[in-house]
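Annex B. Sample input.
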Amino acid sequence: MQFTKRSLDVLYERYNHRQFIHPDPLEFVYRFESPRDREVVGFIASSLAYGRVLQIHRSVSRVLELMGPSPCNFLLSHTCRTFETCFEGFRHRFTDGKALARLLAALRRILLEYGSLEACFTKKLHGEDSSILPALTLFVEELSREMEGTDGMFLPSPRKGSACKRLHLFLRWMVRHDGVDPGVWGTVSPSLLLVPVDTHMHRIAGLLGITRRKQADVRAACEITAAFKGVAPEDPVKYDFALTRLGIHGSIAHG
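Annex B, continued. Sample output.
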């Protein structure tokens, strides 16, 4: 496959459809109708989106089952102590119930203080920002106030050089609106987004010749996003889902 707008558009038309979402954790977001439930579910699902697919689905399903029909109302109706009791014994690879409870407490405080995750994130944006990174860094710092003492891998920060793949995945789901991404938020421009980069996307980008970075870090994410801006300046993350589907259903080397 060559890195051209035409080849990317062909890939987008082929794979960017709801039927290809499974087993992506994004499917959990579509189980809820309320925008506030969708953003809470999106954050939880993306935060746990590491490890094997079956394990991710089991963990997210367990969390959402305990949170009931409205995850947003669950957060607003309980305290951190309740969260710790509910999720005692929970473990998803490196994330235990205590870390999850603290994350839920952080989400609860933001909902109480700002009304929504979107309102909080939007308050971190500034007109002169050329990417989502400055706002994301401040958003992570806001969440981190309740996360002290937990594994930094669960809530990484761009400030430390991490590509923050799961956070950028969450932002893609919330900001973009098309056949795959639900576009829950309406106040953030897709042009500011960064490509969610993990080892898989990093390998694809290397094969396409759009990064020379040896590590899948924040600088690699910026480099890869800059290449996509060259073909889709208003929506540089447009092709992310289709490219990851290609890795599952096809071959980047022969596509």
